[in-house]
Amino acid sequence: MYREEILKRYEPSLDNILYILHDLQDNNPQHYISKEDIEVCANFLKVPYSYVHGVVTFYSMFSLEPRGRYIIRLCESPPCHLMGSESLLEYLKKKLNVDIGETTKDGLFTLELTSCLGICGVAPAMMINNEMVGNLTPEKIDAVIEERRNMS
Amino acid sequence: MNIVRNHILISIDAGTIMAGAKAVEDALIKELTKYGLDKEVSVLETGSLGITGRGVVLVVYPEGIYYANVTVRDVPELVEEHLLKGRPLKRLILTEAPKRTIVTKEKTGLLKEQPRIVLRNCGFINPENIDEYIAAGGYEAIAKALHGMTPEDVVNEVKASGLMGRGGAGFPTGLKWEFAIKTPGEEKFVICNADEGEPGTFKDRLILEGDPHKLIEGMLLAGYAIGAQTGFVYIRGEYGLSIERIEKAIADARTYGLLGKNILDSNFRFDIFVKKGAGAYICGEETALIESLEGKRGHPRNKPPFPINAGLWGKPTLVNNVETLANIPEIIKNGAEWYRGYGTDKCPGTKVYTILGHVQTPGLIEAEMGTTLKEIIFEYGGGIKDGKAFKGALIGGAAGAFISSEMLDVKMDFVNLREYAAALGSGAILVMNEDTDMVDMLKNVLHFFKHESCGHCVPCRLGTAKLVEIIDNIAVSKGKKEDLDSLLEITQAMKSASFCPLGQSVSLPVSSALKYFRDEFMARVS
User: Fold this and answer.
1) Which of A67, B203, B207, B287 is the most exposed place for a label (fewest CB within 10 A)?
2) What's residue B104's pLDDT?
3) Is the pLDDT of residue B107 over 80?
4) Residue B123 — pLDDT band, cuts 50, 70, 90?
5) B244 in contact with A at a CB cutoff of 8 Å?
6) What is the pLDDT of residue B446?
């Protein structure tokens, strides 16, 4: 039912599609755009299913796969790379026991890479859901992850 | 009446929020109240103070003392020492800060002057309070234009200022506006390109977070000049705080009658809407941005027709970058001649830079056009960290240029940088010390392009994939000498045959890296 609530906020005009998709994804318990999400969006905007699917696959903030409760997006742009993000990626993979794009077995964390987050002054940096974390070290990553684990 | 003896300005931007600025602010207010100082000392939120990577940053006036890495635990001591006993808390003082925070052009002796036009209000006013923007001279330019200048006058003033677009290659803004005014059309649009995706670039984010009303005023002036009634700000989906601040600023401007009908009792009507992106580097390209804004996949369009003739929904559309538009109110208010007092003859004005990487003090600065890279890195950036030597810099992000020490004395502007001019717009300066592996850096850049290539045209889709294959080989010392030539050949082909600037721009990092750091590449190939 929450989907209808979301659609009510918008005019059925095509230029609202990204806002609608953002909202659908943010409100989906598994942080992704499901077939049902695409269907309601397509019906609302009166465009084919394939059209919405095409838009979703173009933008990297949207996912067609179910994701964990917390999405970790490690920046891989040159400033973060220079400050050592690659070794942190290895650390994260090992710590969470997942590869890029995968979700931990307990459904808590999904590991992704992202291009520049625009907080390069504190490189290396990552986002965990909507929160930014900078000046990353293995210790800081541990703290962030443990905090989330304890909250769940 | 209540007399405030101290003002504490606390920087609330994405970086400091992350470090806990909100909690520090709350703790400050609580602690001041405890001592009964809350009427004498006011705590104010402001945008970026130009200092990044130093945790929570705040400044206490009238002394002008900067504190960095302030935590909630430091607050009681800070309040007791500085605000109760009047003794600045030495251990938290940021000594190198004042260099980059001088607002006027006045000589202040010790400090490195920083002429601020675009960032004039950043770090001084509360970006969420429209009254503070107005008190700082805001919306005077639009009032001046609406009650004494014709749209042509505005365009001519911008033309005379010599302002060049701060998004990329530096196209003369006044000329673009002139095209827009001459294009017939009942309905025209102004789009602010805030899809800042170039790696290492976040100047537009800090303008949006620090002084959103300046952008609104710039868009109003653009709308009045070209005869548009609607504006859009297309902004990166990742920029949560910027979106929040600009939306609040727009709502406040509407309440004050600065957006809507009969603005300032004139016949001019204009409104602005925010559109949020969803993670696509290519949408920083203006035609791809327009496609995305219309609700499509963000593929670039054929040019011509240019957006100025047929842009959003086929209507004449003016697309300008955030920093470009933020220059406009000051130009209209103070006149083109005043503006030309800054920068170089051919490139007047200032440029906003972000200094990053292996420097002492990474951060945000505004410097006159024509400032050398040496000054930026060694004076504003405080030189190289940990006593290491300078090796090179990547200027302009991924679609930028790798340069070595022989370029340090080049005056940075759109003319002097010549083939590297396109790298200036983004303002990102990533400084690398002697230990940096340039092959690895180029590899990172090429992987970025492969990921961001939209797949629309063959040269870019296949070219970026092939480049990655070659550089991955070189990085593990499995490449051949001929591979270096292949890198150049492929990027040259992409430069001439790619559909849009994404594929065309890959040649810049590749050719510059091979020009200045060829030895390092040669050492890895057989």
Assistant:
1) A67
2) 40
3) no
4) confident
5) no
6) 96
Q: Give the span between the Cα atoms of A122 and B524, in whole angstroms.
A: 31
Task: Using CB atoms, pick whichever of A82, A114, A115 lies closest to residue B436.
Answer: A82
- Structural domain span for residue A40: 2-58
Round to whole Å and give the CA distance between B319 and A52: 26
pLDDT at B111 over 90: no
Q: Which residues of B touch A130 (CB under 8 A)?
A: 240
Count of the separate structural domains present in chain A: 2
Q: Which of A38, A58, A78 is the last residue of a domain?
A: A58
Domain boundaries, chain B: 6-95, 130-339, 350-433, 438-522
CB of B35 within 8 A of CB of B79? Answer: yes
Query: What is the torsional sign of CA B280, B286, B287, B289?
Result: positive
- Inter-chain residue contact A121 with B294, CB threshold 8 Å: no
What residue type is assigned to position B79 of the chain? Answer: V
Helix residue spans in B138-211 (DSSP H): 140-146, 151-161, 173-182, 203-210
Interface pTM (ipTM) of the complex? 0.94
B381 CA: distance to closest CA in chain A (Å): 12
Q: How does pLDDT run across B248-301, given as a tens digit for each residue?
A: 999 999 999 999 999 999 999 999 999 999 999 999 999 999 999 999 999 999
Residue that the structure tokens 């920093």 belong to: B323
Report pLDDT for A85.
Answer: 95
CB contact under 8 A, A114 and B279: yes
Q: Quickly count: other Cβ atoms within 10 Å of residue A64's Cβ.
A: 13
By DSSP bridging, strand A109-114 and strand A126-128 are unpaired
Short-list B480, B484, B481, B391, CA closest to B437: B391
Residues of chain B neighbouring A101 (CB-CB closer than 8 A): none
Indicate yes or no: CB of B397 within 8 angstroms of CB of A78.
yes
Distance, CA of B420 to CA of B360 (rounded, Å): 26
> Which fold is adopted by the domain B130-339?
Rossmann fold (3.40.50)
Q: What whole-number percentage of chain B has pLDDT above 70?
A: 96
What is B6-95's CATH number, 3.30.2420.10, 1.20.272.10, 1.10.3720.10, 3.40.30.10?
3.40.30.10
Q: Which residues contact B515 (CB under 8 A, 6 or more apart)?
A: none
Number of residues written out for chain B: 526
Task: Evaluate whether B396 touches B424 at the Cβ level (below 8 Å).
Answer: yes
Helices (H) and strands (E) in chain A, counts: 7, 4
How many A-B residue pairs are in contact by the CB < 8 A criterion?
Answer: 148
Q: What's the pLDDT score for residue B372? A: 93
Query: Strand pairing partners for B343?
Result: B348
A2 near B CB under 8 A: no
CB-CB neighbours of A147 under 10 Å: 10
Residues of B in contact with A54 (CB under 8 A): 297
As separate numbers, helices (DSSP H) first and strands (DSSP E) second, chain B gives: 20, 13
SS3 content of chain B, % helix, strand, coil (to 5): 45, 15, 40
Q: Which of A13, A32, A58, A147 to mutate to test the interface with B (most CBs of B within 10 A)?
A: A58
User: Which positions 86-145 of A are in contact with B (Cβ < 8 Å)?
Assistant: 114-123, 127, 130-135
User: How much is the pTM?
Assistant: 0.91
At B418, the pLDDT band (50, 70, 90 cuts) reads confident
- State which CATH number among 1.25.40.10, 1.10.1660.10, 3.30.450.190, 1.20.1440.230 fits the domain covering B438-522: 1.20.1440.230
Whether A89 maps to a domain, the answer reads yes
Is B197–A116 a contact, with Cβ atoms under 8 angstroms apart? yes
Q: Where would I find the H helices in B202-312?
A: 203-210, 212-226, 240-255, 286-293
Q: What is the pLDDT of residue B1?
A: 54
